[in-house]
User: Which sequence fits this backbone?
């Protein structure tokens, strides 16, 4: 989770009564942390926000929306390059269930260059990502980076 994700959730709270963050169990994407650890990071990041809930899921996003009785899927867009993929996903989700809308919010300028992949790569090489991720995530990343000499 990056500060860009946090920004999308906070802005989503201006639009919706609650935001449910779906943490996908998809090992094929090669995440740095397992799904339970990622879920814990999200819960800790939003522990002070009663209108935010985090749940683990696998399968279709529209199925999660049904399980949560949600009327919309909230997605963040960083740049025009995100739009094509997100547009295709929104169109497919609408095909699967036309009752579920997709709402897009544009990333703040501060976060348009931030991606989870970049965070993983920079952190793995010992780079400082502390201004790009929540403190909770930084703590987990520090535990992942091997100490020199070990």
Assistant:
């Amino acid at each position: 989770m990056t500060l860009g994700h946090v920004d999308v959730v906070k802005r989503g709270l201006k639009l919706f009564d609650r935001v449910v963050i779906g943490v996908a169990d998809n090992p094929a994407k090669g995440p740095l942390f397992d799904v339970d650890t990622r879920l814990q990071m999200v819960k800790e990041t939003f522990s002070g926000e009663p209108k935010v809930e985090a749940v683990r899921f696998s399968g279709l996003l529209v199925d999660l929306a049904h399980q949560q009785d949600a009327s919309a899927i909230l997605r963040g867009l960083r740049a025009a390059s995100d739009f094509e993929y997100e547009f295709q996903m929104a169109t497919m989700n609408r095909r699967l269930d036309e009752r579920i809308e997709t709402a897009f919010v544009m990333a703040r300028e501060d976060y348009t260059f931030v991606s989870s992949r970049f965070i993983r790569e920079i952190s793995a090489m010992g780079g400082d990502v502390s201004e790009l991720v929540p403190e909770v995530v930084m703590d987990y990343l520090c535990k992942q980076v091997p100490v020199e000499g070990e």
Summary: The domain at 3-144 is CATH 3.40.50.620 (Rossmann fold). The chain has one domain: 3-144. The mean pLDDT is 90. The helical segments are 3-15, 35-45, 61-67, 80-96, 116-124, 135-144.
